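Structure tokens please, single chain.
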Amino acid sequence: MVCGLARFLNDAWAGIPVAWVETVSFLGTAWTNFIGVLQKAWNRFSGFFKKVWARVKSVFTGKDAGEEIARINDEIAAEDNAINARRDAAVNERETERQRRRAAIEGERAGVEDELNRMQQAERAEREKRKQETLAAGEADIAAARKEWEEALAEAKRKREEADARLPGGRRRGLPGPVPGRKHVRRGVRLPVGGIGAGRRALWSHGLTSSNRA
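Here you go.
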């Protein structure tokens, strides 16, 4: 976002001197062409009056004005060629200067854009580096938490096994003892729902009743 805005401003800022260079070059070329037109017009206007004066002189002197008029025409043509040469040289020099200044402006703009690209790439690399570091740190935290959890489970299992080993008969905590066999139960006696203690009381009561009957 920031780099895009910077590129837009860079291009816009480079467009200002480019527009100025183009405007100055256009106006300079137009002025040079205008001056060339005026110079050639004056040259031909003055040549016209020179040819008129040559004809007027020939009337009074009786000499043929053709040779002098031909010489004047040659002078006019030579001056026109010189004016065109000076105009073309000025236009070419101005065009060369315009291209040089355009190249300099474009070089500055390209240099700034290259620097912006370098900064953007460095920013992306730094952002990717921070991302990888964050992922690595997260994976390390997850691995540490998993290790702590496994150690806690192992410790809890060890403590439970030690506690079960200390119970009589090797019974596990929370489980009932062994169920009495048939030899512990006399014929015709059923264990009540109350459990082992109630069964023992029932057996003891049954025994007393049998003794009294004897």
